[in-house]
Amino acid sequence: MNADKFLDIIEDLGGSMYIGVPDSLLSPFIDTVVSKSARHIVAANEGAAVGLAAGHYLATSKPAVVYMQNSGLGNAVNPICSLLHKKVYQIPAIFVIGWRGEPGVKDEPQHVFQGEITLKLLDMLEIPYIVVSKDCDDLSETVEFFRMFLKNGQSVAFVIQKDALTAEVKVEYGSDAELSREETLETILEAGGTENDIFVCTTGKLSREVFEIREKQGIGHGFDFLTVGSMGHSLMIALGIAQAKPEKRVFCLDGDGAVLMHMGSLAVTGANKPANLVHIMINNGAHETVGGLPTPSAHISFAQTAKTLGYTKTVRVTSKEQLSEVMQALRADAAGPVFIEVMCNLKSRSDLGRPTIAPGENKLALMENLK
Question: Fewest CB within 10 A of the end CB: N or C in the chain?
Answer without folding.
Answer: C
